[in-house]
Amino acid sequence: MKNMSNLIIMGxxxxxxxxxxxxxVQELNIPHIxxxxxxxxxxxxxxxxxxxxxxxxxxxxLVPDDVTIAIVKERLSRSDCSKxxxxxxxxxxxxxxxxxxxLTEEIHRPVQCALNxxxxxxxxxxxxxxxxxxxxxxxxxxxxxxxxxVENICDTCGSDLVQRKDDTPESLKVRLxxxxxxxxxxxxxxxxEKILFEIDGLQNIDKVFEDILVILKxxxx
Length: 221
Ligand code: ADP
Ligand code: AMP
What we know:
alpha/beta; two-stranded antiparallel ribbon; globular
């Protein structure tokens, strides 16, 4: 199918979902719905929801399904999703995938494509430990693979870059376990639906994006 625009992007923490999502939404002009970003925004703003989810996120645990499904339900109901959406980091459990099926039926936009980015554990550790983010505008960098123009300064807004609180070795271990036990089964879920597309995430950022475009637009290499 060509020009798919109801999309999800999956993969372990640090696989490059956010990095590729930025480019995909620019190319297709659809909203980027990252549950991780939405939770971090709530934490930054000190909301009740932010207070509720912070302890899970900082320890690397998944936020409970009911809370997560509720924020996605609200977000998908907004008018900008009428032209499509890219869900990044959702669903992460089978219960979330079931809920998503219902939610996307309600808005008459069933998921057309689940991009699965595969990266081995050593590379994930290297990517997570070198990730730096801008606390103000949310841009993401890497100390080796995606350097800002000036060391440790955000290209866009000039703020000092920081490490995410959950990008610690302890939290990463919990997150990788959650991925193995709760999220990995979704690969089979979407395989059965015949909408799973595998991406070799070990390639450089440009090459990964090229492969994604081939899938999304039906372009030949
Ligand atoms: P995720 O959203 O899956 O957790 P990110 O997109 O934040 O992952 O990427 C994790 C880190 O790895 C970031 O610092 C990013 O700059 C870097 N990165 C992303 N894709 C690649 C790649 N293909 N090669 C090398 N580094 C990458
Ligand atoms: P991410 O930015 O995708 O790495 O997500 C950061 C953290 O937010 C995760 O480690 C979880 O604690 C939480 N989170 C994000 N998305 C979900 C989800 N779909 N289900 C449960 N927790 C989530």
